Amino acid sequence: MHNSIKRQLKQFFTSNIEFTDTVSFRKIVMINSILVFLLIIFSFFTIFNFTFLNNPIIGILDILSALLAIATIIYLRKKKNIKQAALISTLILSLFLIFFTIQNQNNHFGIIWVIFFPIVAIIFNGKILGLFYSILFNILVFCLAYNGLGVWDEGNWNYQDLIRFTAATILMTYGMYMIESSNESADNEIERIRAHEKKILKTLQTQAVTDDLTKMYNRRYFNTVAPSVINTARRENKFITFFILDIDYFKKYNDYYGHQVGDEALKMVAHTLMKFIHRDNDFVFRLGGEEFAGLVLSQKEDDVKKWLSMLNQKIENLNIEHLETTLKKKILTVSCGVYTVKATAHINVELLYKIADDALYKAKESGRNKTEFVSS
Q1: Who contacts 216 (Cβ-Cβ below 8 Å, separation ≥6)?
Q2: pTM for the whole structure
Q3: Tag placement on the chain: N or C end, fewer CB within 10 Å?
Q4: Residue 41 contacts by C-beta under 8 Å, 6 or more apart in sequence?
């Protein structure tokens, strides 16, 4: 019950709008809060002016202002346009205060209400636009107040009162501007920090699933995404192909050329794989050391076989010198084991890996620089 009330209050004061930044959230809550407050005030003074003061003109102004406040609340929920609602609310209050000031002529120091206008104007419209509206409004009120010298307050309104009122209004406007400026600066700083944190989090998430050297997906991500790919293939009634690729005699390559050159060779092989296998639903991974892997979905079994049979040639075309290889061509080559199967209920990651790994072993045993295909 308590949570339900809290949820309903939140929906009301946020006009059921979802926000991703604190600035807009704070503004919409303040707009709704002040609109509700104005509605209560206008309703109260409607009764007060009609019942106790017998002032129907001001009472009618209160009724119209209350109705306009209700209309603005409804408009905000319907259109969800914060800027327009803020402008309408500011205009309603300014018109009411101007007409009230003219009609009331500062009886019982009624002009005191106008000093609250900058609070609404600046909170609703921001420090720059709100200050502009406040200055225009204050200039108009000051002109009315100056013309009321010796007339308002049954003739008791004088220069001293005008100066005191002017000073209070300027201080209120300046103070509200500084408060809103501080709030906006704080909100912007919070958003900057959040954006920085999101960037760091994204970087960490990328690093967690990416191999630092080759920028390919790593084994951790393979363990995470492989079951999902299998489920997708099963759901879409597709073939799934898993291959394991190993660089031939890479330990000898590292020993002869050094690990730095070996790292460059790994990056070149990785780049070739990522460029060759790059469809949206395909994945390539560096499982560790000189071992790479890939997951490919297809409608037909033969399509993938023809495609992956070109992998060996793609690596050969890099023409990376490898004088320590026992193969006839003294260049870097790869061996590959490929398993293609229709995704069914019994297919899982362990089975794909075992059969592809066995195929890779056969490719090595039969002379390397080959791709061994297995299907079922």
Answers
A1: 210, 270, 273, 274, 284, 285, 286, 292
A2: 0.57
A3: N
A4: none
- Report the alpha-carbon distance of residue 105 to residue 109 in Å, rounded: 9
- Identify the pLDDT of residue 56: 84
Query: Following CA atoms 362, 230, 273, 316 in sequence, which dihedral angle do they give, to the nearest 10 degrees?
Result: 20
Distance between CA atoms of 31 and 88, rounded to whole angstroms? Answer: 11
pLDDT in tens, 59-75: 888 888 888 888 888 88
Radius of gyration of the chain from Cα atoms?
Answer: 37
Buried b (16+ CB within 10 A) or exposed e, 335-358: bbbbbbbebeeebebeebbebbbe
Tokens of 37: 């407050």
Q: What percent of the chain has pLDDT over 70?
A: 98
In the chain, the domains with their CATH numbers are 2-196 (no CATH), 217-375 (3.30.70.270)
How far apart are the C-alpha atoms of 126 and 250, rounded to whole Å?
64
Q: How many CB atoms lie within 10 A of CB 291?
A: 16
Q: Whose structure tokens read 């060759």?
A: 276
Rounded to whole angstroms, what are the CA distances from 288 to 325, 363, 371? 21, 19, 20
Q: What is the DSSP code string of 319-361?
A: --B-TT-SSSS-B--EEEEEEEEE--TT--HHHHHHHHHHHHH
Q: How far apart are CA 119 and CA 116, in angstroms?
A: 5
